[in-house]
């Protein structure tokens, strides 16, 4: 109890200090008021974080910037732009696009189309222009003497497409209304590839520029966009030399990055080309400086704008302190669970002390090292095939699973007098057969049920990895561990009903208490617990059905993951800190290897190791810390309870909520 209370106090101090400090930098040391707003728009309910300089009012209206995120993200991903632009006197709305964060698209807009494109296109087509129309009508938003709005729109990735469509729609509206609401547009990490599907190509956009200030951030290493004709994939790009780039800048020869060009309609345009990847854009001092430079130029002379140097930035400190709070949040989870299992009722989650296994020696040590290396590397090997599709490797996994199932049959035949061997053989048959079935089927294809569309490929990889681990664990148990007399207790497996019920209740209550702290921090300080693309953030009740739909998948993974961590780290050699290192490697090592291969090759050669893996690679950046944190929780709580149930349930519920809250969910 004393250790748990001490950890609880440290966790709460880190959360409190980190959150208060993050809030100070988020509000420009009090110069800006940050509030979460929600409003009814033409196609649903939009929400966002409104950064309001304290001197902005109906009698002192300000130039306004709307910033928004990309596919599967939320408003907080535009923290850098929101903080730095509001520091310079702009009103800023950091927008949740429809069906992201706290915003909802009317289901009628989908028209019953549950195909990928049916649920993917509507949200970005309308989000930004609907927000522009709302902000234009606010009294604190500046307009010129002709009624034109002094509004800028900036979006990353899909948010960039939404911004591009907003400019196009604004120009169509101008033809009848006689005024323009948007004065300037800067897109980050988006070209005209998807807006072209809606007719808004580079040439069409150029013709509808309307004399505005228009800019693009086109990173050299962007995973998706800006490729020259005839090339594709994750590779080095130079957008200013492409036909679309030259059309955008109205040039007939390759242009110069960072140079402003005057256009025939009286506007000005620029393309910035940082040496960054796609997700790097919204975590970059360089790109943030470009956004500041762009809007200081576009709104030069507007009243109340402070021309603070573009490289004078503080958003990094906000992120750093939110990371401090994130560390405190993870500690809080462990502390709450540790205290609960000492209380009446919850203490039944404990089933005794885990038996510590003797560390292998000699030849068995070499075999163990080989098996562990295979277990760490396999998630890397199957990541691209399961996420993006690779028939050859999926076939290899299929036949390997069949071999494992056949080996299970042989294990039963050769272990008729060994009860443990019989159990192992049965587990090998089941895990091998299920793995073979999974790699040959298309799971999570029903977008009407699995409504977090971007999570479906992650769930598929997750269940694939779970069954691969189960196959390895059961095979090793059949042919090695069972012969050494090792029982299921060494794996943390207890079938005592009280241990299972206690573990489930402890995991659920721990997550509930910890999220209550998160919701309180968000309500009071308008910050959450994050670093870059990884975050624990608040969510609305209408996400609960989606959470429940995906929970069984992640529960299976974390049950098997916790079993693997328990048997491999609870040894005499790994019983201390090295056990945590091995636990993290078992969970997240494959992801780290994948990222090193993918991006090390990209930066060294100009072409990524897996050129066709764009979105999946970006997802991996958040999956690595997810799996690392889960490994720490698994090892810590399994040692305290003597079984896997508390850790597995806690991780499954926690990470499912975190994943769903940070992505796009439709049909809510």
How does this structure look, described?
This protein has 668 residues and is an alpha/beta fold. Helix content is 54%, strand content 10%. It has helices at 2-26, 79-87, 107-110, 116-136, 158-177, 202-207, 243-249, 285-298, 315-340, 362-389, 391-414, 419-439, 455-481, 497-525, 544-569, 577-605, 615-641, 645-661, and strands spanning 32-41, 44-53, 64-68, 91-96, 104-105, 151-156, 182-188, 213-217, 261-262, 268-272, 529-531, 534-536. Helix 5 links the parallel strand 6 (151-156) and strand 7 (182-188).
Task: Give descriptors for this structure.
668 residues, 10-stranded mixed sheet, 18 helices, two-stranded antiparallel sheet, 12 strands
């Amino acid at each position: 109890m004393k250790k748990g209370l001490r950890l609880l106090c440290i966790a709460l101090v880190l959360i409190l200090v980190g959150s208060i400090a993050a809030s100070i930098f988020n509000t420009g040391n009090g110069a800006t008021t940050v509030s979460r707003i929600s409003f009814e728009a033409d196609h649903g309910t939009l929400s966002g974080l409104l950064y309001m300089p304290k001197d902005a009012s109906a009698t002192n209206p300000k130039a306004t910037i709307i910033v928004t995120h990309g596919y599967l993200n939320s408003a907080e991903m535009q923290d850098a732009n929101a903080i730095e632009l509001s520091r310079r006197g702009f009103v800023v709305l950091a927008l949740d696009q429809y069906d992201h964060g706290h915003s909802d698209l009317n289901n009628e807009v989908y028209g019953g189309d549950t195909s990928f494109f049916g649920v993917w296109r509507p949200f970005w087509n309308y989000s930004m222009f609907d927000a522009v129309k709302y902000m234009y009508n606010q009294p604190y938003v500046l307009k010129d003497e002709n009624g034109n709005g002094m509004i800028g729109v900036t979006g990353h990735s899909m948010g960039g497409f939404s911004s591009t469509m907003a400019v196009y729609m604004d120009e169509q509206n101008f033809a009848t209304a006689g005024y323009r609401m948007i004065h300037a547009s800067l897109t980050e990490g988006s070209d005209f590839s998807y807006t072209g599907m809606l007719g808004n190509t580079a040439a069409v956009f150029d013709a509808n520029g309307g004399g505005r200030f228009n800019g693009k951030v086109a990173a050299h290493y962007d995973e998706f966009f800006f490729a020259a004709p005839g090339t594709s994939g994750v590779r080095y790009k130079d957008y200013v030399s492409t036909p679309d780039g030259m059309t955008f800048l109205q040039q007939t020869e390759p242009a110069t990055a960072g140079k402003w060009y005057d256009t025939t309609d009286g506007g000005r345009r620029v393309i910035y080309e940082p040496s960054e990847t796609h997700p790097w854009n919204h975590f970059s001092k360089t790109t943030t400086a470009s956004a500041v430079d762009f809007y200081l130029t576009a709104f030069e002379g507007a009243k109340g704008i402070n021309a603070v140097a573009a490289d004078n930035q503080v958003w990094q400190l906000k992120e750093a302190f939110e990371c401090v709070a994130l560390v405190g949040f993870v500690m809080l989870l462990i502390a709450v669970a540790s205290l609960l299992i000492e209380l009446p009722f919850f203490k039944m989650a404990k089933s005794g002390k885990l038996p510590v296994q003797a560390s292998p020696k000699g030849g068995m040590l070499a075999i163990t090292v080989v098996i562990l290396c295979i277990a760490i590397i396999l998630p890397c090997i199957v990541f691209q095939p399961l996420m993006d599709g690779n028939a050859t490797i999926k076939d290899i996994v299929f036949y390997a699973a069949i071999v494992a199932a056949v080996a299970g049959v042989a294990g039963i035949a050769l272990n008729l007098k060994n009860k443990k061997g019989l159990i192992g053989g049965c587990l090998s048959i089941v895990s091998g057969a299920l793995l073979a079935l999974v790699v040959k089927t298309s799971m999570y294809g029903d977008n009407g049920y699995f409504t977090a569309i971007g999570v479906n490929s992650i769930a598929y990889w997750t269940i694939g990895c779970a069954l691969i681990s189960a196959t390895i664990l059961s095979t090793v148990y059949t042919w090695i561990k069972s012969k050494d007399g090792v029982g299921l207790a060494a794996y943390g497996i207890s079938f005592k009903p009280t241990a299972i019920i206690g573990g489930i209740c402890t995991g659920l209550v721990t997550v509930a208490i910890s999220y209550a702290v998160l919701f309180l921090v968000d309500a009071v300080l308008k910050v959450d617990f994050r670093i870059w693309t990884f975050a624990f953030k608040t969510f609305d009740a209408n996400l609960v059905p989606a959470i429940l739909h995906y929970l069984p998948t992640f529960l299976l993974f974390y049950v098997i993951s916790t079993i693997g961590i328990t048997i491999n780290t609870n040894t005499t050699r790994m019983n201390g800190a090295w056990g945590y290192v091995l636990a993290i490697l078992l969970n997240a090592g494959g992801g780290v290897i994948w990222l090193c291969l993918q991006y090390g090759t990209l930066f060294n050669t100009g072409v990524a190791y897996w050129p066709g893996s764009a979105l999946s690679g970006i997802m991996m950046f958040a999956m690595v810390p997810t799996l690392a944190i889960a490994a720490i929780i698994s090892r810590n709580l399994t040692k305290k309870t003597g079984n896997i149930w508390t850790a597995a349930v806690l991780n499954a519920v926690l990470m499912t909520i975190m994943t769903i809250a940070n992505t796009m969910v439709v049909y809510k």
